[in-house]
Amino acid sequence: MTRRRRRLVLLICCMSLLIVSLDNTIVNVALPSLGHDLRAPISGLQWTVDAYTLTLASLLMLAGSTADRIGRRRTFQTGLVVFTAGSLLCSLAPSLGWLVAARIVQAVGGSMLNPVAMSIITNTFTDRRERAQAIGVWGGVTGISMALGPVVGGLLTDTVNWRAIFWINVPIGLLALFLTWRFVPESKAPSARRLDPAGQVLVIVLLGTLTYGIIEGPAAGPGVSAACFVVAAAALAALVVWELRRPEPLIDMRFFRSAPFSGAAVMAVSGFAGLGAFLFLNTLYLQSHRGLSALAAGLCTLPVAAITTIVGPLSGRLVGTRGPRVPSVVAGVCLAVAGALLSQVTLTTPLPLLLGIYVIFGVGFGMLNPPITNTAVSGMPLAQAGVAAAVASTSRQVGQSLGVAIAGSMASSAAAYRVNALYGLIVLGVALLTTGRWARATAERTAARLTEGPQVTLSQG
Fold it and tell me: Which of 119, 142, 132, 140 lies closest to 323, judged by CA?
């Protein structure tokens, strides 16, 4: 494939990331208007976000392995169709329940986009350094979506209404569908893995009960929360046991013997929990408490988006030349500092100071994405790139879901932001632990063991 064709494939894949990520930021800025129109409580707003991210998290691994089996382009195109149709249904929702249901449809389509697109990128860019740079560009698209989402969403909410925020996905989705058909080559794994329906059900039970207990627990009582957490723990234990016994599991649990691979998953959950909480709390703070319009609130997030767009490709280059340690450490420090500073914000905090804190958060988040993705994917063979990308993407969506759920259930936004500072410290500690010599040795041992076993194999990239 020529260099020009590879860049075009990267552009098409980035379009899918744009609409999936754009949907998160657009919806967040419209939450106050949406909640007023549909008479939704805080828990209803949480479900509007988490129904989407939870469904994504539950189906990403299935979508990745399915794409490796039946064809990545075919799965990618199906995802674009379903996501676009789900966006139309969201714009027509007559009540909160119907909106949440349409968000689930959106997420079913979205689950077939990002991990499959990353698999396409991984198989297109086979050179290690070129792949790291492509992943850096991929991460920068998240910053673009963060820039466009709040501003476009705020403008549409103020000038039309919240339903208009879902219309923007339709033309982008249709254009991406045409370009995929025209330019993206089909690819499959050499040997197809069998489906794992029991493992898939356990993942859904685990994530669903855990999130329900966090969101609905404060209103339903401690008994409901405890029951949900017990079921989630049982589902997790059953999932580990079941997956270890299957010759072709939904996810090979032995991958987590590699410290870098496990570290990437933990950093993704922690970092994106911070992002989910930030987006959810920031919208309510700026609009409901400081009285800004949706557009003004969206403009306030531009520093986060701008710095993430700049830092993402820089982080990708650092990963390609010096490894994931430096950008991961910088990410942890910045996220921890931003969380600590945001916990001190009040209604009288000067806006320039608030925007400066947002810049620190943007640096942290922009630095985080490329090392997570590169570490997760580089430890896998090209034939199983869909599974590798799905693990990283699932960790992100799980983190974002938990971040929104935990932030909405906290007694105050200050307490929620202190938890955000803790997320940053976790990223920092895990980065230091899983990027050194010992961690690389565990990855090498894991790769050697998996190469000998009957399950999916690893190769050091």
Answer: 132
